[in-house]
Description:
Number of strands: 6
Low-confidence stretches: 234-254
CATH topology: Rossmann fold
Number of helices: 9
Structural class: alpha/beta
Order of helices and strands: EHHEHEHHHEHHEEH
Mean pLDDT: 91
Number of domains: 1
Helix content: 25-40%
CATH superfamily: Phosphoglycerate mutase-like
Strand order of the largest sheet: 3-2-4-1-5-6
Amino acid sequence: MVSELWLVRHGESTGNVAATRAERAGEDEVGVPTRDADTPLSDTGREQASALGAHWSRAQALPDTLWCSPYLRARETARIALDGAGLRLRTRVDERLRDRELGVVDGLTSHGMRARFPQEAARRDHLGKFYYRPPGGESWTDVALRLRSVLRDIQDGPGERVLIVAHDAVIWLLRYILEELDEESLFALIGRGNVRNTSVTVLRRRDDSWVADEANDVGHLERSDAEVTEHAGTEEAGAPAHRGDHRTAPAGQPR
Length: 255
């Protein structure tokens, strides 16, 4: 029976970097040429993944199964970290762990969304982040629905400790489901800060409940002097944060 879930956000991606720059410059578009699924890690992201692997190479308790988002930045993070740790895990890449789809507002900053789709921006303001679904995209609740499906397969699968490498919104919503949070308590957690790149959150089963014994841990980055980055999203984020710039990010849609 699965008793631990290790939730890891991918390392910093080139999309994270571009979105941060575009938001701060007040531009309408993020300006990433690749589709979201093909956006790779940045140099910093690869360094972060290597630091995670180096940390795991010295750890005694390790995951024995990997479930991974199909998006390139997640698969690269998993590959670099596992290679660095010398780990060979039974692996399943599952599309239900992909990032939230943004539909017609994909590739736009918060400025771009309000400039090009003012009615959608107003509708989102009215409905709130949790229930707003952009045309052609997903709401947070849509993502939660597919995650409930994949969790059934994960918990019925092999291994006691399962590693999940995915995205900020996916990690938040896995916690929402497993810790039995409501909308208010979820966004209270998000308001304390975004999920950092390659951070580790460990959920452990206690009887019939799941408890976050570790959350958003980046000790492996600090010990290796790798940069700690914390990027929010694009059209909902306002101004994503980067720890090196000593800024605080408002809670928004992670990418």
